[in-house]
Write a structure and sequence with these properties.
Number of helices: 3
Distance between the termini: 31 Å
Shape: globular
Structural class: alpha+beta
Largest sheet: 5 strands, antiparallel
Order of helices and strands: HEEEHEEH
CATH class: Alpha Beta
Helix content: 25-40%
CATH topology: HIT family, subunit A
Bound molecules: zinc ion
Radius of gyration: 17 Å
CATH architecture: 2-Layer Sandwich
């Protein structure tokens, strides 16, 4: 398999075993490990071993492998932590909170009334703006 790494990338170093991590699962294309800055118990990260900066950069075949690992880790983390649910969070670029510029998915176990805040819908949209966004986005598909 062709591998691509970025010499300055922390997650590439983890993928290569040059920096240790609490590995949960590893296969040809993906690596899953515990986040050392957890938002909840059992919070883990799932990433491709190859270096891709964002979701827009990874080839479809490898993305499929990564999302399958996300599904598997999510199921295991739910059982292991006896969680009531879990979030999958994936940040692209700094404006969205991406810190390490190597594509990764957060898998975060959630518990009833855990009080953890995920930034989602705070107001109801106006009909006009929905129409405009719809037109703009569809125009770029
Ligand atoms: Zn990398």
């Amino acid at each position: 398999m062709h591998t691509s790494r970025n010499d300055d990338c922390l997650f590439c170093k983890i993928a290569d075993g040059k920096i240790p991590a609490r590995k949960l699962h590893e296969d040809e294309y993906t690596l899953s490990f515990l986040d050392i800055y957890p938002s909840a118990k059992g919070h883990s990260l799932v990433m491709p071993k190859n270096h891709y900066a964002t979701l827009l950069d990874i080839p479809e075949m490898e993305l499929k492998e990564v999302i399958r690992a996300v599904q598997r880790i999510g199921a295991a983390a739910m059982k292991a932590t006896k969680a009531d649910g879990f979030n999958v969070v994936q940040n692209n670029r700094e404006a969205a909170g991406q810190v390490i510029h190597h594509l990764h998915f957060h898998v975060i176990p959630r518990f009833k009334d855990d009080g953890l805040k995920m930034a989602m819908g705070s107001r109801k949209a106006e009909e006009e703006e929905l129409k405009e966004w719809e037109k703009q986005i569809i125009g770029h598909l």
